[in-house]
Amino acid sequence: MALAVFNDGVRPFMLDFIQGRSTRSATTAVSFGLSAGFIFGLGAPMALSTGVLNPWLVFLPTDILGILSPKKWIAPLLGGAWGAVVVFGLNGANSIAHDLPVDFLTALQQMSTPILFLFTLFPVLAITKQFGRLRGGIAAVVELALVVMTMKVWPDIFPGSIAMAVGVLTLIGFAVNKDLAQRKADRAEAAKSAAAGGLPPEVKNGAGDDAEDPMASLFGASALRLRRHLPLFMLLGAGVCVLAQSHVFGGGEATSFLIAKGDYAEAAQVDFYRAFGFVPLIATTALASGAYGIAGFTFVYPIGYLMPNPFIAAVVGATVFALEVLALSSIGKVLGKLPSVRDSSEHLRSAIGDALGLAILFGSLMAANVMGGGLGILIVGGLYLLNESMGRPVVRMAAAPAAVIVGGVLLNILYWLDLFTPIKG
Fold it and tell me: Which of 92, 174, 286, 395 has its Cβ near the most Cβ atoms within 10 Å?
């Protein structure tokens, strides 16, 4: 039905598929090409190391299977089958891997500390990129002080939770202040022009252009298409929220480890702040393509973690999705009037990628050291560098965890050939 996909990169291609300018097989190939690296390189290692499902392992394959399905009734069967494969396959792979001489799944848990702590810095990086070194430096000092204070005063909560909240709110405050100042300056300039006999302020500000704007027409048609299928989206929201409430699913890289530890409140905070980096992207691509996100704006993740039971989670998840779909047009218009806030979203996503890229690489090398010392680092680091030199056939963020799994398999083979002795035992 092409109503929703998880992969933000696939969503822009959905308009051609919906309007018949692209075939089902071609769109499936695009979806597979953009998703395979994240499924096998990030989603699978993350799930194996934490025992918690994640959106890259669950939703990206269902994107592909859904687009591939020639009939509506086939899609839920394929999706259900994939869910069974993931659940039972994860348990089986965990059992087998933990019995190996070199237990690379336990080693993968080394990634948790760098991911959790370096993720805290993403608001600082976004502020620095958008508002310069001075404000970025001040934000870094404030975040560091908050992390130290949290560790000292509230040792039972995740140290980065307060720092991230302050960082995200500071970034949004800077962006809103800049937009308001710019709009005030624009109004003053327009009034000055009108007084001098130039264009009237309403023309100067672009009012009345919507009726002639082809993008406004496309956005309106896409929003109407999504609203026509509101009951299906409410069902989808209920399902995703129940999945999050079950605590077998984490919506992000950091939250997978927090869910695995049972820190649900901290996981909810992390995914709540993370969502702000994706709202403008999801809203604009949904309005441009007519296909929404499988997890919406992802606010159903943190809400689901905190729900007391699946029944309430289903009702709340359905309500949240209904509000999101109905508000899409308004959100698009607001974002059009707040360009700095929209830019903040892009800087947040970029900062999240930078922070996680370093954290995952560092954590993967720590895992390699646990598996095989210097030889492990040589294999894992070498595979990562080889991927870089080959032009990244595996996406950068997924390359290091994938290298850990390949390295773990190689070390086990070397053990069976009597060429390697595991560090522990």
Answer: 286
HSE-up of residue 144 (Cα within 13 Å, Cβ side): 6
Element (H, E) at 216: helix 214-228
Q: Which structure tokens are listed for 197?
A: 């006999």
Amino acid at the residue 134: L
The CA–CA distances, whole Å, from 109 to 49, 82, 139, 237, 350 equal 6, 25, 30, 30, 25
Amino acid at 418: D
Q: Cα separation of 66 and 1, whole Å?
A: 8
Backbone phi and psi for residue 73, each to the nearest 5 degrees, phi listed first: -75, -20
Extract the tokens encoding 1. 């039905």
N-term to C-term CA, the chain: 54
- CA 390/CA 241 separation, integer angstroms: 40
Q: If you search the block for the tokens 């300018």, which residue do you land on?
A: 21
User: In angstroms, what CA-CA distances link 250 with 3, 36, 118?
Assistant: 23, 19, 18
- Of 7, 89, 90, the C-alpha closest to 47 is 90
Cβ contact 394:401 at 8 Å = no
Amino acid (1-letter code) at residue 334: V
- How far, in Å, CA of 360 to CA of 398, rounded? 8
Kindly state the tokens that stand for 170: 């500071």
**400 close to 382: Cβ distance less than 8 angstroms:** no
Residue tagged 């299977």 (tokens): 65
CB atoms within 10 A of CB 207: 10
Instruction: Let me know if 161 is exposed, middle or buried by CB neighbors in 10 A (0-12, 13-18, 19+).
Output: buried
Neighbours of 28 (CB within 10 A): 19
Instruction: List all residues 6 or more positions away from 91 whose beta carbon is below 8 Å from its beta carbon.
Output: none
Amino acid 42 reads L
Whole-model pTM: value is 0.79
